[in-house]
Amino acid sequence: MCDVNESASTSFISLSSSEESLNDENCDICDNVEFFYTPHFSNFRLTFQPETIRVYLRIKNGYDLKDLYEIEGNTLVSKVPPGSNFLRNIKEGDSLKKIHAFTKIFEPQTTQRDIFNDVVKPKIFDFINGQNSTLLTYGASGSGKTFTVIGTDEEPGIVPRSLEYLFRTLPQLMSDPAAKPSPAGNVTLLSDSDCKKEKLLCRNLLNSSSAVGDRMQHVRIYKAMQQRLSSEPVAFLEDCNDLSIGVWISFAEIYNEQIYDLLRANPSKKEQRPRLRLGMSKGQVYIKNLTCVNVRSGEEAYQILQYGLNNLNYAPTRVNEHSSRSHSIFTIKLVQVSKSDGGCFVSSFNFCDLAGSERSKKTLNVGDRLRESNNINTSLLVLGRCISAVRNAQKAHDNKLVPFRESKLTQLFQKALSGGEDIAMIVTINPSREMFDESQHVLNFSAVASEISIETATKQKETVRDVLKNKTCTEEDFEYTSEELQNMILLLRDELEIQRNEYETNLKIEREYLRKGYEEIYQDHENYVQERIKFAEERVRRQYEDEIEAYKDKIKELENRSEVIELSSDEESEAKETRRRVTNLRRTLDEGFGRYRAAEEKCRQLEIENIQLKERIFELENELEAFRQHHASVISEEIEGSETYGENGVAFNLWDD
Ligand SMILES: Nc1ncnc2c1ncn2[C@@H]1O[C@H](COP(=O)(O)OP(=O)(O)OP(=O)(O)O)[C@@H](O)[C@H]1O
């Protein structure tokens, strides 16, 4: 059944005989020798393999597991610790253990090589056989998603390993590709001048990659990896002289719900990065106008990957100093054209490194980071809702609406997420106590995902003649069915709606940010003023403290002195006597003063009485005068009336003496 390449086998066996290197990850030699036979490309199968989404768990290295987790085969048992939010949902009598099953659990010590061999390698054969595959990494921020997908220089992740594996497996590639895949999933045959353009595009990117980083360093790193992987067994493809195979790569990111091309040079600071839109063709959603570069070696592909990574949005947060702020999608496309019968097909392999879910309380994000964080969490929430809706719909055998359109990510992977295409997930957790609650969310998500059934079918080949017919058509010129057009309208509407929502959300976030900013400024100012007051109080206090102290000393001194005085009895009796005399004098003075006051009062009263009496006298004098005058006039009238009023007849006056 197995057709084995003799020379490869010999060289491998001789290498694997080195005992020393058997357990050495750097040497990447396995004692379990496997050789794979890939069926001839022309024997395309059309088989349906119903199964559920494969969900792998990778536990981050460097933490002690045993207090919180136990691994029993492919099952993870989590022991809910005191203080966990999950305790709230656990009723009395319920177990404090949570159990999650996986396709496979990769323990902390698992190497990058193990992950690649177990998860990716089998998919690469299906990929070569024409199957589309998507691999998602899902987990909280800092749990090891990017480490798994990209890895480090010393420990390359699944993408660099896949590139190397693919180029080692594929036969000698033609220097000029025969056809180019379009983002919509079709192919366009390439003329000589088209080929030149494609080569130029690749060369430009390679040259630009030297401008943004040390190109030679990337080459060195890749060559070192190549060296380490050179003893790894690869599949042998038989009898493929008839085929023209081309490898194409693209790299996109979804940042703040906008799609960007990572293989396009970033514009100057003033200009905005062009945003890409989603399109739909034959029920498949794709990114319009996404750059697709033809690469002829793993080394070239790796340099272009690095170019894209350089354009990716990273930022430090409290939980990860190099945190991906976007979902990134690295795609390898394989275009196979049969020279004899014109048969051709395209298969694609998406490696999607999702941005990490994060709680702003933990990350302490503000401003841009908070906005990114909200967008990341929203799209992951939509992903979770879609997955759960698909699972429920599959269980109930109904066609309930799944909210794929609520985020770019779910729109793009709609087909795979609804079970129409091969998809697998690597969920990553950080097993520390601090991240327990986040890890439980991730594990619950993976439990739902693992229940989704997928039906994969390898494609039937198209014929080059069909392609040739469409040779002059551009992607935009396709004749769309009315259903496709309606879907496109829906997509555009959704995009508009999403943008509107995003705008409103951003506005809200900005407002909230500004409000918080002002509050902070106000609080800062308030604190500043309070501090100034305290400072001033302190200064005054200090200033008077000396004076107060001086007074205290004075008082003490006086007290001491009074004590001294008390000690002298003569002086004391003299003082007493003086005090007594003073008291008496004061009393006498007070009495005298009282008497003086009383006398003064009496005087004042007498003065008043005197004035009143004077007035009375004056009145009486007036009355007397009046009476006198009246009386005088009466007498004179009487004298005048009788000559003789006296006996002797002599007139007299009463008032005369
Ligand atoms: N299994 C592991 N072994 C050793 N180091 C690891 C492992 N997983 C992650 N790391 C290290 O932990 C740090 C954070 O990992 P990584 O950047 O992959 O997290 P992430 O999940 O992609 O986070 P984010 O969502 O914020 O981008 C990195 O320095 C990485 O090298």
What is the gist of this entry?
The chain is of the alpha+beta class. Helices cover 48% and strands 18% of the residues. It is built from 15 helices and 23 strands.
Helices, strands, pairings?
Elements (H helix, E strand, L loop, with lengths): L5 H11 L20 E2 L9 E5 L1 E6 L9 E4 L2 E5 L17 E5 L2 E3 L5 H17 L4 E7 L5 H5 L8 H12 L9 E3 L5 E3 L2 H21 L2 H15 L6 E2 L5 E13 L2 E4 L16 E4 L2 E4 L5 E3 L2 H14 L2 E2 L7 E2 L2 E12 L4 E11 L6 H4 L3 H30 L11 H5 L1 H4 L4 E8 L6 H14 L3 E5 L4 E2 H6 L12 H86 L1 H73 L16
Parallel strand pairs: 1-11, 3-7, 3-21, 8-20, 8-21
Antiparallel strand pairs: 2-22, 4-5, 5-6, 9-10, 12-13, 12-16, 12-19, 14-15, 17-18, 19-20, 20-23
Helix pairs in contact: 2-4, 4-7, 5-7, 6-7
GO cellular component, one term: microtubule
Keywords: ATP-binding, Coiled coil, Cytoplasm, Cytoskeleton, Microtubule, Motor protein, Nucleotide-binding, Phosphoprotein
Pfam families: Kinesin
